[in-house]
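pls design
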């Protein structure tokens, strides 16, 4: 969802900047030429006095835009991948397993399944409850049910065991790789 919001915001910002650039470069009607001020003294007296209702609506709209911009900025700074997972060693202490190492191990094991052309894995969630997002690219001859069974069984079983987790939810997305049709002669 964040990617969609980013695209929309970039498109709106680009359109606004393009329009402002065209207006400034051509010095058309709102500016009355390049040397004229944006707001004359009469315009400032008429529009910037605080007795009208529109001034407060304008301030409220600007405040909403500011809050939305801050929300968008904070969403950009938020990390979506889980960096480490604590592993109980059994003696009361914990070891730290890198999230990238666990994801790479699951991707390598899933990539070795029959009919898998490629696999990408991302570890998401929180340190206490991690989850996997698996994107599997299937070869044209692969059977998705068999690949899903292999992924849900031994691959995720090994990941749970090696990370010492009782539960490791996973979301798998399958995509069939493109292939060329065989030539019939």
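designed seq:
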């Amino acid at each position: 969802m964040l990617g969609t919001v980013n695209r929309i915001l970039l498109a709106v910002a680009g359109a606004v900047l393009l329009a402002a650039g065209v207006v400034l470069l051509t010095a058309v009607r709102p500016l009355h030429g390049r040397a004229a001020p944006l707001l004359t003294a009469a315009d400032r007296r008429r529009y910037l006095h605080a007795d009208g209702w529109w001034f407060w609506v304008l301030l409220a709209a600007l405040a909403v835009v500011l809050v939305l911009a801050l929300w968008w900025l904070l969403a950009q700074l938020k990390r979506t991948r889980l960096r480490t997972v604590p592993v109980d060693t059994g003696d009361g202490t914990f070891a730290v397993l890198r999230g990238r190492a666990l994801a790479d191990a699951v991707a390598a094991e899933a990539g070795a399944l029959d009919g898998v052309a490629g696999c990408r894995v991302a570890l998401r969630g929180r340190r206490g409850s991690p989850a996997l997002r698996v994107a599997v690219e299937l070869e044209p001859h692969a059977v998705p049910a068999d690949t899903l069974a292999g992924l849900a069984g031994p691959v995720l079983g090994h990941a749970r065991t090696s990370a010492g987790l009782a539960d490791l939810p996973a979301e798998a997305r399958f995509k069939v790789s493109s292939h060329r049709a065989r030539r019939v002669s």
